[in-house]
Write a structure and sequence with these properties.
With about 625 residues, this protein is α+β, with helices and mostly antiparallel strands. The chain is built from 25 helices and 23 strands. A hairpin with an 8-residue loop joins strand 14 and strand 15 (about 365).
């Protein structure tokens, strides 16, 4: 018992207990001090930050997207409209677990993987608390399902908005272009001011007039301060600054003429460009086949886009502006002007055509399209009958550099400057061009090919329409324009460029073009018999593939897509031109039979105000191949 009592040490126990009390008290004091410091830090140092965060939960600044400007034709018909639509939008900060929320909403309504991918791209390039669209064009059934399940979808709302619509579908696709969702790449290309202006906007012009006039059509963004509840629902608007709508645009295009041109082309691949020679205003711009631009507005599906992209008919390809083709014999009037201008030929100069042409000291024969030739012809007759030999000889005398320099005055070899996107400039070759591009010298035989619009010469239907209008104006060349007025203000006609030539030179060439349509041996004489006005024109056939010397062209042995392209250019009336036209029919073979009836239908509709039926071109007489 005595030993057990000696083991107890009260003094030590008291000392240990006291130390523990002091340590515990110190820990409590330190924790309290830390709490005080944190409280002071939150209330004093970070007061502004958390006050703002708290206020943001109650008051939000929301962008108000502007209403996009409308596009009309020359007669006030709406070509590009805005239609109401409902979209499912997401505010990331209110969603919580985004992946879980996306899985839930996809179990309720159908949402494509493409929509989710585009949503995720846009999610990173937005302001806090800014809504991002997940699914566009909700159906009534989808709206109802989402409304019933709204309590399960915090941060997701069904929002009403105006989206672009094209009531005429593919008819104006290549002229107007289309709008589409703003991509991440496009957002990064915008400057800070533009980024602000596109906050709340999900669409941007991609191509065509929609892209070229994007700044005018888009408008200016507005803003509103709104009070929201804990779920983010707007309770009231505290302050509002209205957006400025985009301005409306009126085009030179005539919807009726556009439809007639497209129907006249039918199932052919090709293009029609009609222009007002006095202003440069584009009356019709058609490329077939086309596509429905409405598919692109809220995002086209992968399979649908692949079908358009991979189609052998290339419906996304704007043949009027981007299609570069050998212009064939449609170049002959311009070369005739060059020959007369340089004094290489006169109106009375005659060339004998035995059906072929040979360069000095060269055994190769360059064939005329008409076997047996045209006999002895002057410049006017050479245009009327489209005599290749005459223009072989003319090109050889002029040389390629003079052909280039003269044709460049009409706009060949460079973009026309039309107010649209993706225009190509074609090719008007020269010695320097070939050295620079092909890295080899120019050969004399290539000049002959260029002399009939073949070889390296390439032009777009738009270029030929502008050049034809320049002949109609006797040398005044206007820059082509699609837009006539912006916000009711008529745009000034661009100053014309002048090609100074004596009046008698213009007269000879225009008379030759008139004979093409109205002459006894004109290559388009069948069409001319039914005209009630005087038209000047030129047919053309452009080879798609070359044939060796001595090989006869047998259309039955040639695949459809390797057959010649058919051209026809024209203007009317001759004394007071009101319309100039260029028609291309891919693989149409003969300008007289495939292209000139289309031009007649368009000219009749515009000049006579009637929907004249197509008059089939005959197969008798000269000019069948042209």
């Amino acid at each position: 018992m005595a030993e057990r009592l000696t083991l107890k040490d009260p003094y030590t126990e008291v000392r240990i207990f006291t130390a523990r009390i002091l340590v515990a008290a110190a820990i409590v004091v330190l924790c309290f001090c830390a709490l005080l410091y944190r409280y002071a830090d939150l209330q004093i140092n970070q007061y502004e930050k958390y006050r703002t965060e708290s206020e943001r939960n109650r008051v939000q600044l929301q962008p108000l997207p502007p209403k996009r400007g409308l596009i009309y034709d020359r007669n006030g018909l709406i070509l590009a409209d805005n239609s109401p639509s409902y979209s499912l939008t997401v505010i990331k900060e209110r969603v919580g677990d985004l992946n879980k929320a996306l899985a839930l909403v996809r179990s309720l309504v159908s949402i494509d993987d493409d929509d989710v991918d585009k949503f995720m791209e846009r999610l990173g390039d937005r302001y806090p608390y800014q809504s991002v669209p997940l699914k566009f064009r909700l159906t009534e059934e989808e709206i109802a399902i989402l409304s019933i399940n709204r309590y399960r979808l915090p941060g997701m709302e069904v929002e009403a908005e105006f989206v672009r619509s094209y009531p005429h579908g593919e008819l104006f696709a290549h002229a107007l272009g289309y709008v589409g969702r703003i991509s991440e790449k496009e957002l990064k290309s915008l400057n800070p001011e533009q980024v602000l202006n596109y906050s709340g906007t999900h669409y941007m012009g991609k191509i065509g007039v929609e892209r070229y006039y994007e700044d005018q059509l888009h408008g200016k963004v507005g803003y509103q301060n709104v009070e929201t509840n804990a779920r983010g629902r707007v309770l009231r608007v505290l302050e509002r600054s209205e957006p400025t709508s985009g301005v409306d645009i009126e085009l030179f295009l005539d919807a009726k003429l556009q439809q007639i041109a497209q129907e006249a082309l039918g199932d052919n691949r090709g293009s029609v460009v009609a222009i007002d020679p006095k202003t440069g205003g584009i009356l019709a711009l058609v490329s077939t086949p086309a596509f429905d631009p409405n598919l692109f507005v809220t995002g086209i599906s992968g399979p649908a886009y692949a079908a358009l992209r991979d189609s052998p008919d290339m419906p996304l390809y704007n043949r009027a502006l981007q299609g570069t083709y050998p212009p064939g014999s449609t170049m002959k009037p311009f070369y005739a002007l060059a020959g007369l201008s340089y004094g290489v030929v006169t109106p009375t100069t005659r060339v004998s055509d035995p059906g072929f042409y040979q360069l000095p000291n060269d055994s190769r024969q360059y064939r005329d399209w008409r076997r047996g030739g045209h006999g002895s012809v002057d410049v006017r007759q050479a245009i009327e009958q489209s005599c290749d030999v005459f223009f072989y000889d003319l090109a050889h005398k002029l040389t390629i550099d003079r052909l280039h320099d003269f044709a460049a005055q009409f706009g060949f070899g460079e973009p026309t400057g039309i107010d649209n996107t993706s225009e190509r400039g074609g090719v008007m070759p020269s010695r320097e061009w070939k050295r620079k591009v092909k890295k080899v010298a120019w050969y004399p035989g290539e000049t002959l090919s260029a002399g009939i619009g073949q070889g390296y010469v390439l032009a777009t239907p738009l270029q030929l329409a502008v050049a034809t209008a320049t002949i109609a104006n006797r040398g005044e060349r206007f820059e082509p324009r699609l837009v006539k007025s912006v916000n009711g203000q008529v745009l000034p006609v661009p100053e014309a460029r002048h090609i100074e030539l004596p009046a008698d030179i213009w007269k000879v060439v225009i008379e030759g073009m008139e004979d093409v349509v109205h002459g006894e041996r004109g290559t388009a004489k069948t069409m001319g018999k039914t005209l009630t006005y005087r038209m000047a024109g030129k047919t053309g056939s452009a080879q798609v593939v070359g044939y060796a010397q001595g090989i006869k062209y047998d259309v039955s042995q040639v695949a459809k897509r390797k057959r010649d392209h058919a051209w026809f250019i024209a203007f009317a009336p001759i004394d007071d031109p009101k319309i100039a036209i260029a028609v291309l029919v891919e693989n149409g073979e003969h300008g007289a039979s495939a292209a000139s009836p289309i031009a007649k239908k368009i000219a009749d509709a515009y000049l006579l105000g009637i929907d004249a039926p197509l008059v089939p071109a005959g197969t008798d007489g000269e000019g069948v191949l042209e």
